[in-house]
């Protein structure tokens, strides 16, 4: 089944404790992206990747890192999480930029 | 940067037609997409316009006017299950994707 998977789905952590949210797609898509969604707001792009080893900042990259070492995986790293990073995070992939994005199920993160 | 405006709420009755407008400001425009999101769920793709005009997919249609930086999503024969949030998103040729804040559609019997 074609899909985007994210792990974990729910995470409670404390300020400053490094964490990684994994994202994987099995559709051989070139484009992948991370978004955060806060109540009442749309999705805000954190980072995106047009292809392997190519990443770029979205609208809200501060406090996040990403890497794209292989086509299928695009992990999101929070080196030192803070409470303002409490949010719902979505990973998405697309055959190429500008085309239909397929979203993962989301990861709910709470930073205490 | 990019910015988008869409109404925050729309209410309609079952069987009706509703139009959700989206105006945007961006540089390097590549295309305008529409997504649906039910409470707590992942956004799902509805429609995409890269060129001016109307795109039709079943009960959903989307329109784009690049000269007016304007698009809309048209939902026909509304059903209760269409109650959800709808987002327009502008894509740039650099790969960035910016979403509007969403329109909450409530369909009443």
How would you summarize the topology of this molecule?
The complex is a heterodimer of chains A (112) and B (109).
Chain A: E1 4-7, E2 10-13, E3 19-25, E4 31-37, E5 43-51, E6 54-57, E7 65-66, E8 76-78, E9 87-94, E10 102-103, E11 107-111
Chain B: E1 3-5, E2 9-13, E3 18-25, E4 29-37, E5 44-49, E6 53-57, E7 60-65, E8 70-75, E9 84-92, E10 97-99, E11 103-108
Parallel strand pairs in B: 2-11
Antiparallel strand pairs in B: 1-3, 3-8, 4-5, 4-9, 6-7, 7-8, 9-10, 9-11
Overview of this protein structure:
Helices cover 0% and strands 49% of the residues of chain A. In chain A, the strands form two sheets. In chain A, strands 2, 4, 5, 6, 9, 10 and 11 form a seven-stranded mixed beta sheet that branches. Chain A is globular, with a radius of gyration of 13 Å. By secondary structure, chain B is mostly beta strands. Chain B is built from no helices and eleven strands. In chain B, strands 2, 4, 5, 9, 10 and 11 form a six-stranded mixed beta sheet that branches. The mean pLDDT of chain B is 94. At the A-B interface, strand 4, strand 5 and strand 10 of A face strand 4, strand 5, strand 9 and strand 10 of B.
Of all chain pairs, the largest interface belongs to: A-B, 25 and 27 residues
Q: Which runs of chain A of at least 5 residues are low in confidence (pLDDT < 50)?
A: none
* Percent of residues in beta strands of chain B: over 45%
Q: What is the distance, rounded to the nearest whole angstrom, between the alpha carbons of the first and last residues of chain B?
A: 41 Å
The gross shape of chain B turns out to be globular
What is the helix content of chain A?
A: under 10%
Order of helices and strands of chain A: EEEEEEEEEEE
Helix/strand class of chain A:
mainly beta
Tally of separate helices of chain B: 0
Q: Overall pLDDT of chain A, averaged?
A: 95
Distance between the termini of chain A: 36 Å
Summarize the structure.
The complex is a heterodimer of chains A (112) and B (109). Chain A is an all-beta fold.
């Amino acid at each position: 089944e074609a899909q985007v998977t994210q792990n974990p789905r729910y995470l409670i952590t404390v300020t400053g404790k490094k964490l990684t949210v994994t994202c994987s797609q099995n559709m051989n898509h070139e484009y992948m992206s991370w978004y955060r969604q806060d109540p009442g707001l749309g999705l805000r792009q954190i980072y995106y990747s047009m292809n392997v080893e190519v990443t770029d900042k979205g609208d809200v990259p501060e406090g996040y890192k990403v890497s794209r070492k292989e086509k299928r995986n695009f992990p999101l790293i929070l080196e030192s999480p803070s409470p303002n990073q409490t949010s719902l995070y979505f990973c998405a992939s697309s055959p190429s930029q500008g085309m239909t994005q397929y979203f993962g199920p989301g990861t709910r993160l709470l930073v205490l | 940067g990019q910015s988008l405006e869409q109404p925050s709420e729309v209410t309609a009755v079952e069987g009706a037609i509703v139009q959700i407008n989206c105006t945007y400001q961006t540089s390097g425009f590549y295309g305008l997409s529409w997504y649906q999101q039910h409470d707590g769920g992942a956004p799902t793709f509805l429609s995409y316009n890269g060129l001016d005009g109307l795109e039709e997919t079943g009960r959903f249609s989307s329109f784009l006017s690049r000269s007016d930086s304007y698009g809309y999503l048209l939902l026909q024969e509304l059903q209760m299950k269409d109650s959800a949030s709808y987002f327009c998103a502008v894509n740039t040729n650099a790969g960035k994707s910016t979403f509007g804040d969403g329109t909450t559609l409530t369909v009443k019997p």
